[in-house]
Design goal:
Largest sheet of chain A: none
Largest interface: A-B, 91 and 96 residues
Structural class of chain A: mainly alpha
Number of helices of chain A: 14
Low-confidence stretches of chain B: none
Oligomer: heterodimer
Order of helices and strands of chain A: HHHHHHHHHHHHHH
Distance between the termini of chain A: 28 Å
Number of strands of chain B: 0
Distance between the termini of chain B: 42 Å
Mean pLDDT of chain B: 86
Strand content of chain A: under 5%
Largest sheet of chain B: none
Structural class of chain B: mainly alpha
């Protein structure tokens, strides 16, 4: 739109100012992480370098990173597989009670995860999965209502005529699903996988109550535990934070174009 | 099981389709089962450790009485309400709309720069965000070192004196991107002709926003409010890692109260009652917003 040419410069300056305020909390993190002699005070790096990053990757940090990757990739993959397997039939067949089930999903999606924390802890305790497997299962179960609705919406947009044509050509159901449905909803599935991955990567509460041993800490708990320790090494923690935040930030900007499709999907199912 | 009008390839593969649905049905069923158990636990004296962790007994309405008549729950409910109102409804929603409305008129470079800054906060894990805000508001942190001390003020330890404000600002900082992205998509869908017509009729930009755009996107505003209210109301990680609920009980929102009572003190029964209270409140809020969505105008 070409309205308001006049105040545009002032507006641009205000926006620039807002953006700078918005990123200013990062200042300390950056100056501390890249300073080999960081002492926790806000100052320009006295001895710029990457020592902190090397330090951050030593000791048990690598184990925590592997745990985080396992939890996140496990949760995302399991969520997508379980949801896709159920969303296709839900999208294509009028099963009795389908609408009731979809409404139940809408309601369950509103359920705060803290609401079922106590029973979920008890269930995991009794099933003997107070560990990473438990975290993966708990997060998958909590992801499912939302993912299932979203995935059903994606499959609804795939035209049935394509399937009809494939059927006439002699394709089986398995071939139709793997050769037509999946490729066509690929970008949607990638977005869902990404959302589930970052959700689990950033997750704090469930690992907090499920992780019994230090060996099973993911990065979120590792970082949280490090705050409380005596003689905090600020440089190392800052570098560790950057390493921990990088995948979630990076994958978003890589997948950004697909992301808009995902948002459109979220918007449809208000 | 399958209605007669189903397509032939679906009919021939019905066992595969049914088998595919089983894991999801089991998991969703389990989630419902867990919700029921949260309610059941809330009527017991179940504890985390000790004899009552195995031999629990019914406690009737004791946990709920405790919630209503003893200190703790109502104070936390008030803290949560303030936190939710100012950080989600006032902060994220209004700032998100403002950024979306203003940035649409900007050149693509500035637009993507500001957008990236907003989204960075949103993508950051909660613990890292907490770390950033703890360092920014510390006595030797960004605000004190670069603003207050050069201006001649005494340095302030913000997390000790204004903990709730810091937590609210941190959450605005973290969550505005969501509302922003939603409003960008929504504003793109507002037909240009209507705005042009209003402009021709002599409406000022403010009038166009208040009288034309906002009524048209009313439903989307309600949708956005619904989501961010739900999330903020039960938000845990950022507040817990920033303040742990303190100092005192200043930032003890319901989710932290629930966590502390369940896993700190070990009173799982009472913790379950608090979580049931949270679910009931979220349920009422959902009904409220859904009515707002449906109401024709």
């Amino acid at each position: 739109m070409e309205k308001n040419e006049a105040p545009s410069r002032l507006q641009s300056l205000a926006l620039l100012f807002a953006a700078i305020i918005w990123v200013s909390p990062f200042t300390w993190l950056i100056t501390t992480a890249f300073d080999n002699e960081a002492n926790g005070l806000l100052r320009l790096p006295q001895k710029p370098g990457f020592d902190n990053f090397i330090l951050a990757l030593s000791n048990n940090a690598l184990q925590q990173m592997i745990n985080s990757v396992l939890i996140s990739a496990g949760t995302a993959t399991l969520t997508v597989m379980v949801a896709a397997a159920a969303a296709y039939p839900l999208s294509r067949i009028r099963i009795p009670g389908r609408n009731g089930f979809l409404w139940a999903l809408v309601l369950l999606r509103m359920l705060p995860s803290t609401g079922v924390l106590v029973p979920i802890y008890f269930a995991a305790l009794n099933a003997g999965v107070l560990n990473m497997v438990g975290v993966i299962l708990a997060l998958t179960i909590l992801n499912l209502p939302f993912t299932l609705l979203l995935m059903k919406n994606f499959f609804d947009t795939v035209p049935i005529e394509l399937e009809e044509a494939a059927h006439v050509e002699g394709a089986t159901l398995w071939q139709i699903v793997t050769k037509i449905i999946m490729p066509l909803s690929r970008s949607g599935i990638a977005v869902i996988w990404f959302f589930a991955f970052t959700g689990a990567w950033n997750e704090f509460l469930f690992p907090l109550i499920f992780s019994r041993t230090e060996a099973s800490f993911p990065m979120s708990i590792g970082l949280y535990a490090a705050f409380g320790q005596q003689g905090i090494h600020y440089g190392r923690l800052a570098a560790y934070s950057i390493i921990y935040a990088a995948p979630a930030v990076g994958v978003y900007f890589l997948l950004r174009r697909n992301m808009n499709t995902g948002f459109a999907g979220v918007g449809v199912k208000g | 099981m399958i209605v007669p009008d189903a397509h032939p390839w679906l009919k021939s593969g019905r066992f595969m389709l049914i088998a595919g649905m089983i894991p999801a049905l089991l998991m969703v069923g389990f989630l419902v089962y867990l919700t029921v158990w949260a309610v059941v636990f809330s009527f017991t004296d179940l504890t985390l450790v000790g004899p009552k962790s195995i031999n629990w007994s019914w406690a009737g309405l004791e946990n709920y009485e405790r919630m209503l008549f003893r200190r703790g729950f109502l104070e936390s409910l008030w803290t949560t309400t303030i936190f939710t109102f100012f950080s989600a409804i006032v902060g994220q929603s209004m700032l998100g709309f403002l950024f979306a409305a203003v940035l649409r008129t900007q050149k693509s470079f500035l637009r993507s720069f500001v957008e990236t800054c907003l989204i960075l906060g949103w993508l950051l894990p909660d613990i890292v965000a907490a770390f950033l805000w703890a360092s920014t508001t510390a006595k030797t942190g960004f605000i004190n070192t670069l603003i207050l001390v050069p201006l001649g003020f005494e340095p302030i330890n913000f997390l000790n004196e204004y903990a709730l404000t810091v937590v609210i600002i941190a959450n605005i900082w973290k969550g505005t991107a969501w509302s922003y992205l939603l409003f960008v998509a929504v504003l793109d869908a507002v037909p240009k002709e209507v705005l042009e017509a209003a402009k021709v009729d002599g409406a000022t930009p403010l009038q166009r926003t208040l009288r034309v755009t906002l009524p048209m996107i009313r439903q989307h505003i309600a949708t956005n409010m619904l989501f961010i209210t739900m999330w903020t109301f039960s938000y845990f990680a950022l507040i817990f890692s920033l303040t742990g609920g303190g100092p005192g009980n200043d930032t003890k929102v319901l989710s932290i109260l629930m966590y502390q009572q369940s896993f700190g003190v070990g009173k799982l029964g009472y913790g379950a009652a608090v979580s049931v209270g949270m679910m009931v409140i979220v349920g009422f809020l959902t009904i409220f917003y859904v009515r707002l969505l449906k109401e024709p105008k």
